[in-house]
Write a structure and sequence with these properties.
10 helices, about 200 residues, about 70% helix, globular
Length: about 200
């Protein structure tokens, strides 16, 4: 998104909402959200082999290096934060795999695992992940465009219904529906690490 902002493609609330909606439906719905669902089900089944496959798939579908790195960095921070709060053997085993560097520890997979072991619903897991992701994008836009806080709140309000619709859409998808349709966003991610100045890592 910072690449879009520096290229003067996001400077109004409407353009921010359009970008977030595109990110939602062309990136999250067709990627991480599906992986969360799959990881959720695999955790309930204690299917470690499936989870390992999802871990590899998550890294492979993120074409931009910054996107891959961010997925791992956020995932590792996430499991460090939640591990002391949740005494679950399966989650602890997964953390050991990350600590021993036998797996990367992608955020979407960890979010699916954590949601399953804490007893939340699969729908709630997907919904909260997408809400939190878009909320983070908007907060970054508020600081970097810059927008006022009111603009950020209004943009988030406009996205609540699309997030709900996206959650329902994801529930009809499986691994065969994973695709990478957000080519503009992928290209902007690749360009981001070469920007003259950056406020955000990714």
């Amino acid at each position: 998104m910072e690449t879009y902002i520096q290229n003067d493609l996001i400077h109004t609330k409407e353009e921010l909402v359009d970008y977030c909606a595109s990110y939602l439906f062309q990136n999250l719905v067709r990627g991480d959200a599906i992986l969360i669902q799959e990881a959720f089900d695999a955790t309930l089944e204690k299917n470690v082999e499936k989870l390992l496959e999802l871990e590899e798939l998550c890294g492979a579908m993120k074409l931009a290096k910054e996107s891959r790195d961010a997925s791992v960095n956020v995932g590792r921070q996430f499991i460090r934060t939640i591990s002391p709060l949740q005494d679950d053997p399966f989650l602890a085993e997964w953390k050991e795999r990350i600590d021993s560097q036998s797996i990367k520890g992608h955020y979407a997979i960890l979010y699916g695992i954590y949601s399953a072991v804490t007893g939340t619903s699969k729908r709630h897991a997907v919904l909260t992940f997408m809400y939190a992701t878009l909320s983070g994008l908007i907060q970054n836009a508020v600081r970097s465009v810059p927008f006022g806080q009111n603009t950020g709140v209004q943009a988030m309000h406009k996205l609540i219904q699309p997030i709900t619709e996206a959650t329902e859409l994801v529930s009809t998808f499986g691994l065969d529906d994973i695709s990478n349709n957000a080519l503009g966003i992928e290209l902007a991610s690749m360009q981001h690490e070469y920007l003259f100045s950056r406020l955000f890592i990714s």
